[in-house]
Amino acid sequence: MKLDLISLSVIQKALENIAEEMGIVLRRASFSANCKERLDFSCAIFNSEGELVAQAEHIPVHLGAMFSSMDTLLAQYDVNSFNPGDIIILNSPFSGGTHLPDISFILPVFIENKLTFFVTNRAHHSDIGGSTPGSMPGTSTEIYQEGLIIPPVKLYSNGVENDDILNLILSNVRVKEERLGDFRAQRAALIRGEDRLKELATDYGRDFLLNSITQLMELSEDSFRSHLGNFPDKTLKFCDYLDSNGITENPVKIQVAMHKLKDKVIVSFEGTDKQQIGNVNCPKSVVYSCVYYVFRVLTDPSIMTNAGLFRNIEIKIPAGILLDPKIPAAVSSGNVETSQRIVDVLLGALAQSFSEIPAASQGTMNNISLGSTKGVTPFTYYETLGGGTGAGKFHKGTSAIHSHMTNTLNTPIEAFELIFPFRVKKYAIRQNSGGKGKNTGGNGIEKEIECLIDTTISIQSERRAFSPYGLYGGQPGAKGANYVRKRNGEVINLPGRTITELSSGDTLMIKTPGGGGYGKRK
Fold first, then answer.
1. Strand, coil or helix: 280
2. DSSP per position, 323-381
């Protein structure tokens, strides 16, 4: 039965609300500041074939990569092996994950005794083992230094927790209680999603619901295909560079070419540099996430986000390059830093034909991991810092905000200082850091954190050597910078990726990049 647009919209909004409610439950039940304060998690619903049905408006780099997690899951498990109450856990970047701190939970949903959906979430945990607190070592050279690798395994079978697997995981992390609390929150969110989907199927009927979802996907596919009519009949190319690979100072090139072929858009990363010794290598799941994000934000926002929206995008990644690393490649920065440069490259290519494309945003997440196991109470903390967004044809850039592949909040100073042994000395907009132009790029952030105990600090950041680009005559945004001010007053410049031991009284100082400007100033 063919449904009208109003009826389809009601079903889609109901599904999206379920994903959003899953996120609310996860936040309220979580233990860590990273989930409770920063909201560093994402929730989505897939059908029994692993196709995206609906997602919450959470974090782009998580959401787009979940496609790969579902592909891996369904390739590894016979669908008949799933039972009600099963929960699969995974974090391996080579099995559809992103980087090791991002841990996914997946629960099969049975309606009328038939596998009908999967509900899933992915949360960034502030530690999953490895060589440094926070599991984001700035100078890692192999994935084993970055934490515990979890392939898809059943953490719950028929609703019963696998104590052996749980104990194995908790024996490899620094703050067990916090990990366990966030695991419980992820499970609670899945159960809420399962309950709501069953209620929806009761209201409408399983067959009606599945038929509606099929039509919703077809509608999204048709809408995207119609937008391809605006795509130029030429190949669009662009390249940009990562500052370094984290070990050597040599810049790392990312290149893209895209063109329309009949009713598809082909996105090729041929010409990108090879797999690197440092941690900038980017799993294919993250590359897909970046491409999907760019085309999602550039199409009509009224188009429903589901698997149909992406069926007409073909992504080509040559084997052996930075964007298709092989074990034991270090990848922790690929998810957070390389992803941002991929977006810059994609938008730079599209800007050659679409003047509405904005200049480059800050192009980094400015990752800071803080931790210590030397005190009475071991702790780990992770945060990312916002910066300036790029200006556009009709608007200035926005200051001090997360952009593109990240979408988190900050941890309020009051909560941060209450929970952790630090004092925030400064947290302010970095004035005049946005690129000049007819429209000025957004400003970055300045943050200074004083350590109250000896602390290991790991930084992964970008745009310290290459500025965020401006467009159409606009100037680039200011580069970022990392420093330490020792308690004796000495100031030491830090590289973009580093592991540093700070003493009580030392202060970490971060200046995040501004966004690029747009157009020439008159």
1. coil
2. TS--TT---HHIIIIIHHHHHHHHHHHHTTT-TTPPPP------EEEEEESSSSS-EEE
- C-alpha distances (whole Å) from 332 to each of 89, 273, 321 are 19, 18, 16
- Tell me which amino acid residue 216 is: L
| Domain locations in the chain as residue ranges | 5-221, 355-522
CB atoms inside a 10 Å sphere around CB 197: 21
Q: What tens digit of pLDDT does each residue of 436-473 get?
A: 999 999 999 999 999 999 999 999 999 999 999 999 99
In the numeric block, the tokens 């079903």 are attached to: 11
Radius of gyration of the chain from its Cα atoms, rounded to whole angstroms: 22
Q: Which residue has the tokens 């188009």?
A: 303
* 461 in Cβ contact with 482 (< 8 Å): yes
| H or E element, residue 180 | helix 176-204
Antiparallel, parallel or unpaired: β 313-316 and 264-268: parallel
Q: Which two tokens stand for residue 405?
A: 């592949």
Q: What share of the chain is helix, strand, coil (3-state, %, to 5)?
A: 30, 25, 45
Structure confidence by residue, pLDDT tens digits, 334-364: 999 999 999 999 999 999 999 999 999 999 9
Per the confidence metrics, is the pTM higher than 0.85? yes
> How many CB atoms are closer than 10 A to CB 248?
11
Residue 417: CB atoms within 10 Å = 15
What is the C-alpha to C-alpha distance for residues 182 and 178, in angstroms, rounded to an integer? 6
Between CA 348 and CA 476 the distance in angstroms is 13
Do residues 492 and 484 touch, judged by C-beta distance below 8 A? yes
